[in-house]
Amino acid sequence: MPRRRTVLSLALGTTAALATGCSILPGGGSGGRTITMWLMKDSASDAFLDEFREWFGKEHGDVELKVKIFEWEGIGQKIREALDSKSGGPDVIEVGNTQVAQYVDEGGLLELTLESARDFGMEDWVTGLSEPGQFNNRQYGIPWFAANRVVIYNKELWEQAGIKKVPQTRDEWLAITKTLNSGNVQGIYLPGQEWYTLAGFIWDEGGDLATDRSGNWEGSLDTEEARRAMDFYAELQALGKGPKRSDEKNPDQAVEFARGNIAQIVSLPSAAAKIKETNAEVAEKLGYFPIPGKTANRKGSVFIGGSVLVVPENTSDRRGAVALIQALTGEKWQTELARTMGYVPNKTTLARVVAGEPGVAAMAEGSVRGRATPNSPNWGKVELDNPIKKYMTAVLTGSDPASEAKKASMLITRALG
Fold first, then answer.
1. 3-class DSSP assignment, residue 165
2. Is 303 helix (H, G, I), strand (E, B) or coil?
3. In order along the chain (417 residues), what is the average pLDDT of each group of 10 residues?
4. How far apart are CA 308 and CA 39, in angstroms?
């Protein structure tokens, strides 16, 4: 396969910053096989890895497993070098779910379509992980874990407003938010550039951020579906004081929520830790629900982030790599990982294992309608100087929606070309 270099997404960064550790499974090393796995820092706890090492060592006593831990920042270049290597590289690598298309396009990943059907239970995968793991209808990325946004709300403020049930539709959500937005209470804190949430609304309307037209990707913000989604976003965003010119990180919306006068935010459940750190009293009042859809029988679409596991073509032990992935993505270790780290498991059939954690349970419920960004090898170029954010700010500050959507779509098309 010809190798073409394209730009990694901003999430992976450009500056190398590596923290490497090596762990060896008990029971291996004397003439047996060696498997090397690259994982990202904080994807799995030390306790999880220790327990997994002990179990896997007993199951595969002839295998020496080396686990190396990397920082996300700068990992793209290291993965490219590993895929280009003639020998001695990793056998399994953790990558972001939206990065698979780029690595396949550049060359160097092993196709795992057969193993996915035979060994990995692909029929039950969370689609927001499985679909971006495909390229040209072939499976390369094997879902490991997922995370997606939910609505985090202040139960006390809801009770004071007389609201007893969480909304089941977007119209109900909007009506409740209008009721909450009274006095010094913000109905919702929704930054103007929270484009992942907008993407979910666009998908609910039947649109997309970009469309593949016979191999040519074109921006799609200038469609009727995207316009309706932006109209809803603007109506919701106006029911609070979220900044129109920045995203959820500037300022940190969890810190803003912790002040105690915000009724809702749209965020990952992990924001609860920052809320607790900032104001433990507010953290005791948290509730969670999936982002509502247009109708009560369908949850809202959400962007799925997370990790998948890939195998380089130059692996020296395909059989061992498949066995390792099968273990990490099977029910036993998916259950342990989800409960330990607060992730959505890779299969919809495993949502039950996080039922006891309200935030994670809401996340798992919403993940059923999870999706990822357009599966173009060049999507990272879009995020480098994100025209979707600029479009949202322009509309929210009074510019003509039609002309701004057309401009943003043109920039997306150019980036994906």
1. coil
2. strand
3. 33 31 38 86 95 90 89 95 90 97 96 97 96 96 98 98 98 98 98 98 98 95 98 98 97 98 98 98 98 97 98 95 97 97 96 96 96 96 97 98 98 97
4. 10
